[in-house]
Amino acid sequence: MTATSSHNQTDASRSDAPTQSDSPTQARGVKPLLGLSLAELTEWVQQQGQPAYRGKQLHQWIYQQGARSLADISVFSKQWRSQVAEVPIGRSQLHYRSAAPDGTVKFLLRMQDGQIIETVGIPTEKRLTVCVSSQVGCPMACDFCATGKGGFIRNLATHEIVDQVLTVQEDFGQRVSNIVFMGMGEPLLNVENVLVAVRSLNTDVGIGQRSITISTVGIPGHIRRLADQHLQATLAISLHAPNQALREQLIPSARHYPLSALLEECRDYVKQTGRRVTFEYILLGNLNDRPEHADELAQELHGFQSHVNLIPYNPIKEVDYERPTPRRIQAFVKALQDRHIAVSVRRSRGLEADAACGQLRASQIKISA
Ligand code: SAH
Predict the structure, then answer these.
(1) Which of 32, 221, 250, 304 has the fewest CB within 10 Å, making it most exposed?
(2) Nearest C-alpha neighbor of 82 from the set 73, 96, 71, 67
Protein backbone atom coordinates (compact mmCIF):
# COMPACT_ATOMS: atom_id res chain seq x y z
CA MET A 1 0.00 0.00 0.00
CA THR A 2 1.22 3.41 -0.68
CA ALA A 3 0.84 6.19 1.78
CA THR A 4 -2.69 7.23 1.97
CA SER A 5 -5.06 9.89 2.99
CA SER A 6 -6.50 11.96 5.70
CA HIS A 7 -7.30 15.25 7.05
CA ASN A 8 -8.05 19.16 7.11
CA GLN A 9 -8.95 21.88 9.58
CA THR A 10 -12.24 20.63 11.01
CA ASP A 11 -12.41 19.09 14.40
CA ALA A 12 -14.13 15.74 14.27
CA SER A 13 -15.68 15.83 17.70
CA ARG A 14 -17.48 19.12 17.16
CA SER A 15 -21.19 18.84 16.60
CA ASP A 16 -20.96 20.80 13.34
CA ALA A 17 -18.33 18.42 11.96
CA PRO A 18 -19.45 16.82 8.71
CA THR A 19 -21.05 13.47 9.30
CA GLN A 20 -23.66 11.91 7.05
CA SER A 21 -24.34 13.75 3.84
CA ASP A 22 -25.54 12.05 0.74
CA SER A 23 -24.42 12.65 -2.79
CA PRO A 24 -26.37 15.11 -4.92
CA THR A 25 -27.94 12.24 -6.90
CA GLN A 26 -29.56 10.96 -3.75
CA ALA A 27 -30.51 14.43 -2.60
CA ARG A 28 -32.65 14.70 -5.75
CA GLY A 29 -34.40 11.48 -4.77
CA VAL A 30 -33.18 9.35 -7.69
CA LYS A 31 -31.48 6.64 -5.72
CA PRO A 32 -28.92 4.69 -7.73
CA LEU A 33 -29.33 0.92 -7.76
CA LEU A 34 -25.71 0.02 -7.00
CA GLY A 35 -25.34 -0.94 -3.35
CA LEU A 36 -28.85 -2.44 -3.12
CA SER A 37 -29.14 -6.07 -2.06
CA LEU A 38 -30.88 -8.82 -4.00
CA ALA A 39 -33.97 -8.44 -1.77
CA GLU A 40 -34.04 -4.66 -2.30
CA LEU A 41 -33.61 -4.96 -6.06
CA THR A 42 -36.34 -7.57 -6.18
CA GLU A 43 -38.66 -5.27 -4.26
CA TRP A 44 -37.81 -2.46 -6.64
CA VAL A 45 -38.57 -4.43 -9.82
CA GLN A 46 -41.84 -5.59 -8.31
CA GLN A 47 -42.77 -1.99 -7.52
CA GLN A 48 -42.24 -1.37 -11.22
CA GLY A 49 -44.75 -4.12 -12.04
CA GLN A 50 -42.10 -6.63 -13.09
CA PRO A 51 -41.91 -10.26 -11.95
CA ALA A 52 -39.62 -11.07 -9.00
CA TYR A 53 -37.08 -13.03 -11.09
CA ARG A 54 -36.15 -9.77 -12.83
CA GLY A 55 -34.58 -8.73 -9.50
CA LYS A 56 -32.12 -11.60 -9.70
CA GLN A 57 -31.29 -10.71 -13.29
CA LEU A 58 -30.76 -7.08 -12.34
CA HIS A 59 -28.50 -8.09 -9.45
CA GLN A 60 -26.44 -10.29 -11.77
CA TRP A 61 -26.14 -7.56 -14.43
CA ILE A 62 -25.12 -4.89 -11.95
CA TYR A 63 -22.64 -6.86 -9.87
CA GLN A 64 -21.31 -9.51 -12.28
CA GLN A 65 -21.74 -8.13 -15.77
CA GLY A 66 -20.82 -4.54 -14.96
CA ALA A 67 -23.92 -2.96 -16.50
CA ARG A 68 -23.51 0.82 -16.43
CA SER A 69 -27.08 1.71 -17.32
CA LEU A 70 -30.41 -0.07 -17.39
CA ALA A 71 -30.44 0.42 -21.15
CA ASP A 72 -27.52 -2.08 -21.34
CA ILE A 73 -29.54 -4.92 -19.85
CA SER A 74 -30.60 -6.79 -22.95
CA VAL A 75 -32.69 -9.39 -21.13
CA PHE A 76 -35.19 -6.67 -20.20
CA SER A 77 -37.85 -5.60 -22.67
CA LYS A 78 -37.15 -2.46 -24.69
CA GLN A 79 -40.38 -0.97 -23.43
CA TRP A 80 -39.49 -1.37 -19.74
CA ARG A 81 -35.96 -0.19 -20.34
CA SER A 82 -37.23 3.02 -21.84
CA GLN A 83 -39.63 3.49 -18.92
CA VAL A 84 -36.84 3.29 -16.33
CA ALA A 85 -34.14 4.91 -18.44
CA GLU A 86 -33.80 7.73 -15.90
CA VAL A 87 -32.93 5.44 -13.01
CA PRO A 88 -29.14 5.46 -12.59
CA ILE A 89 -27.10 2.40 -11.71
CA GLY A 90 -24.57 4.74 -10.13
CA ARG A 91 -21.28 4.03 -11.88
CA SER A 92 -18.52 6.64 -12.03
CA GLN A 93 -16.59 7.89 -15.07
CA LEU A 94 -12.86 7.26 -15.40
CA HIS A 95 -11.11 10.63 -15.22
CA TYR A 96 -7.47 9.51 -15.18
CA ARG A 97 -5.54 6.25 -14.90
CA SER A 98 -1.91 5.86 -14.00
CA ALA A 99 -0.06 2.53 -13.82
CA ALA A 100 3.21 2.04 -11.93
CA PRO A 101 5.87 -0.46 -13.05
CA ASP A 102 5.04 -2.64 -10.02
CA GLY A 103 1.52 -3.17 -11.38
CA THR A 104 -0.22 -0.77 -9.00
CA VAL A 105 -2.85 1.27 -10.80
CA LYS A 106 -4.23 4.56 -9.51
CA PHE A 107 -7.56 5.79 -10.75
CA LEU A 108 -9.15 9.18 -10.51
CA LEU A 109 -12.90 8.67 -10.76
CA ARG A 110 -15.43 11.35 -11.56
CA MET A 111 -18.66 11.25 -9.58
CA GLN A 112 -21.98 12.35 -11.01
CA ASP A 113 -21.60 15.85 -9.51
CA GLY A 114 -18.13 16.25 -11.02
CA GLN A 115 -16.18 15.56 -7.82
CA ILE A 116 -13.02 13.52 -8.24
CA ILE A 117 -11.86 10.75 -5.92
CA GLU A 118 -8.84 8.49 -5.87
CA THR A 119 -8.89 4.68 -5.87
CA VAL A 120 -5.91 2.33 -6.09
CA GLY A 121 -5.67 -1.26 -7.34
CA ILE A 122 -2.76 -3.15 -5.81
CA PRO A 123 -1.96 -6.57 -7.26
CA THR A 124 0.27 -9.10 -5.52
CA GLU A 125 0.91 -12.71 -6.47
CA LYS A 126 -2.22 -14.02 -4.83
CA ARG A 127 -4.32 -10.94 -4.20
CA LEU A 128 -5.90 -7.95 -5.76
CA THR A 129 -6.43 -5.29 -3.11
CA VAL A 130 -8.44 -2.13 -3.64
CA CYS A 131 -7.70 0.96 -1.59
CA VAL A 132 -11.04 2.78 -1.51
CA SER A 133 -11.99 6.34 -0.57
CA SER A 134 -14.88 7.01 1.79
CA GLN A 135 -15.08 10.81 1.41
CA VAL A 136 -14.22 13.48 -1.15
CA GLY A 137 -11.29 15.05 0.70
CA CYS A 138 -11.02 14.67 4.46
CA PRO A 139 -11.68 16.95 7.44
CA MET A 140 -9.15 15.42 9.85
CA ALA A 141 -6.12 17.50 8.81
CA CYS A 142 -3.40 15.04 9.84
CA ASP A 143 -0.20 16.92 9.25
CA PHE A 144 1.61 14.31 7.13
CA CYS A 145 -1.31 13.53 4.83
CA ALA A 146 -1.81 14.84 1.28
CA THR A 147 -5.60 14.43 1.31
CA GLY A 148 -5.90 16.38 4.55
CA LYS A 149 -4.08 19.33 3.02
CA GLY A 150 -6.82 19.67 0.41
CA GLY A 151 -9.80 20.00 2.75
CA PHE A 152 -13.13 18.21 3.01
CA ILE A 153 -15.89 18.32 0.41
CA ARG A 154 -18.48 15.64 1.13
CA ASN A 155 -19.17 12.07 2.13
CA LEU A 156 -19.36 9.40 -0.52
CA ALA A 157 -22.68 7.64 -1.02
CA THR A 158 -22.79 3.85 -0.78
CA HIS A 159 -22.88 3.34 -4.54
CA GLU A 160 -19.81 5.56 -4.95
CA ILE A 161 -17.86 3.28 -2.61
CA VAL A 162 -19.01 0.01 -4.22
CA ASP A 163 -18.33 1.46 -7.69
CA GLN A 164 -14.62 1.84 -6.88
CA VAL A 165 -14.27 -1.88 -6.30
CA LEU A 166 -16.17 -2.83 -9.47
CA THR A 167 -14.04 -0.36 -11.46
CA VAL A 168 -10.78 -1.95 -10.30
CA GLN A 169 -12.16 -5.44 -10.83
CA GLU A 170 -13.14 -4.61 -14.40
CA ASP A 171 -9.88 -2.83 -15.17
CA PHE A 172 -7.74 -5.76 -13.97
CA GLY A 173 -10.14 -8.38 -15.40
CA GLN A 174 -9.66 -10.20 -12.13
CA ARG A 175 -11.69 -10.67 -8.96
CA VAL A 176 -10.86 -8.32 -6.12
CA SER A 177 -9.80 -10.29 -3.03
CA ASN A 178 -9.24 -7.56 -0.44
CA ILE A 179 -10.47 -4.07 0.33
CA VAL A 180 -8.85 -1.46 2.52
CA PHE A 181 -10.63 1.78 3.46
CA MET A 182 -7.35 3.66 3.27
CA GLY A 183 -8.00 6.04 0.43
CA MET A 184 -9.30 9.57 0.85
CA GLY A 185 -11.41 10.34 3.89
CA GLU A 186 -12.20 9.21 7.39
CA PRO A 187 -14.54 6.22 7.11
CA LEU A 188 -16.02 6.56 10.59
CA LEU A 189 -17.28 10.07 9.77
CA ASN A 190 -19.30 8.39 7.03
CA VAL A 191 -20.11 5.29 9.01
CA GLU A 192 -23.68 4.73 7.80
CA ASN A 193 -22.73 4.62 4.14
CA VAL A 194 -19.52 2.70 4.84
CA LEU A 195 -21.42 -0.01 6.71
CA VAL A 196 -23.97 -0.41 3.91
CA ALA A 197 -21.10 -0.53 1.40
CA VAL A 198 -19.35 -3.23 3.45
CA ARG A 199 -22.59 -5.24 3.46
CA SER A 200 -22.91 -4.87 -0.30
CA LEU A 201 -19.26 -5.64 -1.01
CA ASN A 202 -19.64 -8.72 1.12
CA THR A 203 -22.96 -10.16 -0.03
CA ASP A 204 -23.38 -8.63 -3.52
CA VAL A 205 -19.80 -8.45 -4.80
CA GLY A 206 -18.72 -11.54 -2.82
CA ILE A 207 -15.74 -10.31 -0.81
CA GLY A 208 -15.26 -11.91 2.61
CA GLN A 209 -15.77 -9.51 5.53
CA ARG A 210 -12.46 -10.60 6.96
CA SER A 211 -10.78 -9.44 3.78
CA ILE A 212 -12.10 -5.92 4.32
CA THR A 213 -10.13 -3.47 6.49
CA ILE A 214 -11.53 -0.22 7.84
CA SER A 215 -8.77 2.22 8.76
CA THR A 216 -9.60 5.08 11.11
CA VAL A 217 -7.89 7.75 13.09
CA GLY A 218 -10.59 7.11 15.72
CA ILE A 219 -13.80 9.05 16.30
CA PRO A 220 -15.11 8.91 19.89
CA GLY A 221 -17.90 6.35 20.31
CA HIS A 222 -17.76 5.12 16.72
CA ILE A 223 -15.54 2.07 17.22
CA ARG A 224 -18.15 0.89 19.69
CA ARG A 225 -20.73 1.18 16.91
CA LEU A 226 -18.71 -1.20 14.74
CA ALA A 227 -18.36 -3.60 17.65
CA ASP A 228 -22.12 -3.52 18.27
CA GLN A 229 -22.67 -4.59 14.66
CA HIS A 230 -20.38 -7.59 15.31
CA LEU A 231 -18.54 -6.56 12.23
CA GLN A 232 -16.05 -9.17 11.10
CA ALA A 233 -14.05 -6.71 9.03
CA THR A 234 -10.57 -5.84 10.29
CA LEU A 235 -10.26 -2.63 12.26
CA ALA A 236 -7.06 -0.66 11.70
CA ILE A 237 -6.34 2.29 13.96
CA SER A 238 -4.05 5.08 12.79
CA LEU A 239 -2.12 5.41 16.03
CA HIS A 240 1.09 6.98 14.71
CA ALA A 241 2.43 7.96 18.15
CA PRO A 242 3.05 6.17 21.45
CA ASN A 243 1.83 9.05 23.63
CA GLN A 244 -0.84 11.71 23.71
CA ALA A 245 1.47 14.73 23.27
CA LEU A 246 3.12 13.43 20.11
CA ARG A 247 -0.18 12.16 18.72
CA GLU A 248 -1.79 15.58 19.11
CA GLN A 249 1.11 17.14 17.27
CA LEU A 250 0.46 14.91 14.23
CA ILE A 251 -3.31 14.45 14.41
CA PRO A 252 -5.30 17.56 15.45
CA SER A 253 -8.46 15.59 16.30
CA ALA A 254 -6.51 13.61 18.92
CA ARG A 255 -6.93 16.62 21.23
CA HIS A 256 -10.53 15.53 21.71
CA TYR A 257 -9.86 11.82 22.01
CA PRO A 258 -7.26 10.88 24.60
CA LEU A 259 -5.09 7.92 23.67
CA SER A 260 -6.28 6.09 26.79
CA ALA A 261 -9.95 6.44 25.71
CA LEU A 262 -9.15 5.32 22.17
CA LEU A 263 -7.30 2.24 23.41
CA GLU A 264 -10.13 1.45 25.82
CA GLU A 265 -12.64 1.46 22.96
CA CYS A 266 -10.31 -0.80 20.98
CA ARG A 267 -10.05 -3.22 23.91
CA ASP A 268 -13.84 -3.44 24.02
CA TYR A 269 -13.87 -4.02 20.27
CA VAL A 270 -11.52 -7.00 20.66
CA LYS A 271 -13.66 -8.37 23.48
CA GLN A 272 -16.90 -8.03 21.58
CA THR A 273 -15.79 -9.21 18.15
CA GLY A 274 -12.96 -11.59 19.01
CA ARG A 275 -10.95 -9.89 16.25
CA ARG A 276 -7.51 -8.47 16.82
CA VAL A 277 -6.94 -4.83 16.00
CA THR A 278 -4.23 -3.51 13.69
CA PHE A 279 -2.38 -0.41 14.84
CA GLU A 280 -0.92 1.62 12.01
CA TYR A 281 2.17 3.59 12.92
CA ILE A 282 3.62 5.96 10.37
CA LEU A 283 7.39 6.19 10.83
CA LEU A 284 8.63 9.78 10.63
CA GLY A 285 12.41 10.08 10.70
CA ASN A 286 13.78 11.49 13.97
CA LEU A 287 10.29 12.26 15.19
CA ASN A 288 8.54 9.08 16.34
CA ASP A 289 11.03 6.41 15.24
CA ARG A 290 13.48 6.40 18.16
CA PRO A 291 14.06 3.35 20.40
CA GLU A 292 12.29 5.06 23.29
CA HIS A 293 9.18 5.45 21.11
CA ALA A 294 9.23 1.71 20.37
CA ASP A 295 9.54 1.10 24.10
CA GLU A 296 6.61 3.34 24.94
CA LEU A 297 4.50 1.80 22.18
CA ALA A 298 5.25 -1.71 23.43
CA GLN A 299 4.19 -0.69 26.93
CA GLU A 300 0.89 0.77 25.70
CA LEU A 301 0.10 -2.34 23.68
CA HIS A 302 1.28 -4.88 26.22
CA GLY A 303 -1.21 -7.78 26.43
CA PHE A 304 -3.36 -6.31 23.66
CA GLN A 305 -4.61 -8.70 20.99
CA SER A 306 -3.13 -6.59 18.20
CA HIS A 307 -0.67 -6.22 15.42
CA VAL A 308 1.45 -3.18 14.57
CA ASN A 309 1.77 -2.17 10.94
CA LEU A 310 4.62 0.27 10.42
CA ILE A 311 4.23 2.67 7.49
CA PRO A 312 7.43 4.42 6.43
CA TYR A 313 6.41 8.00 5.65
CA ASN A 314 5.72 8.72 1.99
CA PRO A 315 6.94 12.28 1.45
CA ILE A 316 4.38 14.90 0.48
CA LYS A 317 5.43 18.31 -0.74
CA GLU A 318 3.49 20.40 1.79
CA VAL A 319 5.55 19.32 4.82
CA ASP A 320 9.13 18.26 5.35
CA TYR A 321 9.03 15.16 7.49
CA GLU A 322 11.69 12.60 6.77
CA ARG A 323 11.30 9.05 5.57
CA PRO A 324 13.43 6.94 7.94
CA THR A 325 16.32 4.94 6.55
CA PRO A 326 15.87 1.15 6.17
CA ARG A 327 18.27 0.72 9.09
CA ARG A 328 16.18 2.80 11.41
CA ILE A 329 13.02 1.01 10.28
CA GLN A 330 14.64 -2.35 11.03
CA ALA A 331 15.80 -1.14 14.44
CA PHE A 332 12.22 -0.12 15.30
CA VAL A 333 10.91 -3.49 14.14
CA LYS A 334 13.46 -5.32 16.26
CA ALA A 335 12.74 -3.21 19.34
CA LEU A 336 9.04 -4.15 19.09
CA GLN A 337 9.78 -7.80 18.39
CA ASP A 338 12.09 -7.96 21.39
CA ARG A 339 9.12 -6.83 23.45
CA HIS A 340 6.88 -9.52 21.90
CA ILE A 341 4.78 -7.18 19.81
CA ALA A 342 3.56 -8.61 16.47
CA VAL A 343 4.82 -6.23 13.80
CA SER A 344 5.05 -5.85 10.03
CA VAL A 345 6.26 -3.11 7.69
CA ARG A 346 4.00 -1.89 4.91
CA ARG A 347 5.66 -1.98 1.54
CA SER A 348 5.14 1.23 -0.43
CA ARG A 349 3.41 0.44 -3.68
CA GLY A 350 3.01 2.56 -6.76
CA LEU A 351 5.24 5.34 -5.55
CA GLU A 352 6.36 5.78 -9.12
CA ALA A 353 2.80 6.37 -10.28
CA ASP A 354 2.29 9.60 -8.39
CA ALA A 355 3.66 9.34 -4.89
CA ALA A 356 1.35 9.15 -1.92
CA CYS A 357 -2.39 8.71 -2.20
CA GLY A 358 -4.14 12.07 -2.40
CA GLN A 359 -1.26 13.62 -4.30
CA LEU A 360 -2.37 12.25 -7.64
CA ARG A 361 -5.73 13.94 -7.23
CA ALA A 362 -4.13 17.17 -6.05
CA SER A 363 -1.74 17.31 -9.00
CA GLN A 364 -4.43 16.41 -11.55
CA ILE A 365 -6.86 18.98 -10.24
CA LYS A 366 -4.15 21.61 -10.57
CA ILE A 367 -3.42 20.57 -14.14
CA SER A 368 -7.04 20.70 -15.23
CA ALA A 369 -7.83 23.95 -13.35
N1 SAH B 1 -8.68 8.36 7.68
C2 SAH B 1 -8.28 6.98 7.77
C3 SAH B 1 -7.80 6.44 6.45
C4 SAH B 1 -6.56 7.14 6.09
S5 SAH B 1 -5.44 6.52 5.03
C6 SAH B 1 -7.18 6.84 8.80
O7 SAH B 1 -6.69 7.86 9.28
O8 SAH B 1 -6.85 5.72 9.17
C9 SAH B 1 -4.62 5.14 5.61
C10 SAH B 1 -3.30 5.34 6.31
O11 SAH B 1 -2.30 6.05 5.57
C12 SAH B 1 -3.49 6.07 7.59
O13 SAH B 1 -2.86 5.34 8.61
C14 SAH B 1 -2.79 7.37 7.32
O15 SAH B 1 -2.40 7.99 8.50
C16 SAH B 1 -1.65 6.94 6.44
N17 SAH B 1 -0.98 8.04 5.73
C18 SAH B 1 -1.49 9.23 5.36
N19 SAH B 1 -0.56 10.00 4.76
C20 SAH B 1 0.59 9.28 4.76
C21 SAH B 1 1.92 9.53 4.27
N22 SAH B 1 2.25 10.67 3.68
N23 SAH B 1 2.84 8.55 4.43
C24 SAH B 1 2.50 7.38 5.02
N25 SAH B 1 1.27 7.08 5.49
C26 SAH B 1 0.32 8.02 5.37
Answers:
(1) 221
(2) 71
Ligand 1 pocket check for 135: Cβ under 6 Å: no
> Do 106 and 200 reside in the same domain of the chain?
yes
Pocket flag, ligand 1, residue 186 (CB < 6 Å): yes
Question: Which of 83, 102, 122 delimits the end of a domain?
Answer: 83
DSSP annotation string for 150-165: T-EEEEPPHHHHHHHH
Query: Which is catalytic among the residues 40, 118, 186, 280?
Result: 118
Query: Is 117 within 8 Å of 111 (Cβ atoms)?
Result: yes
* Judgement on whether residues 312 and 182 belong to the same structural domain of the protein: yes
| Active-site annotation holds for 192 | no
Is any atom of ligand 1 closer than 6 Å to the C-beta of 284?
no
C-alpha 39 to ligand 1 mean position (Å): 36
Identify whether residues 199 and 69 lie together within a single domain. no
Say if 25 falls within a structural domain. no
Each residue's pLDDT, cut to its tens digit, for the chain (369 residues) gives: 433 333 332 333 333 333 334 444 444 457 899 999 999 999 999 999 999 999 999 999 999 999 999 999 999 999 999 999 899 999 999 999 999 999 999 999 999 999 999 999 999 999 999 999 999 999 999 999 999 999 999 999 999 999 999 999 999 999 999 999 999 999 999 999 999 999 999 999 999 999 999 999 999 999 999 999 888 999 999 999 999 999 999 999 999 999 999 999 999 999 999 999 999 999 999 999 999 999 999 999 998 999 999 999 999 989 999 999 999 999 999 999 999 999 999 987 765 545 455 556 666 555 443
Q: What angle do CA 239, 286, 340 make, to 5 degrees?
A: 50
- CA of residue 356 to ligand 1 center, whole Å: 9
Q: Is 118 a catalytic residue?
A: yes
Residue 80 neighbours by CB distance under 10 Å: 16
| Domain-ending residue, one of 66, 83, 100 | 83
Q: Is the CB of 8 under 6 A from ligand 1?
A: no
Q: Which domain holds residue 50?
A: 33-83
Q: Is the CB of 217 under 6 A from ligand 1?
A: yes
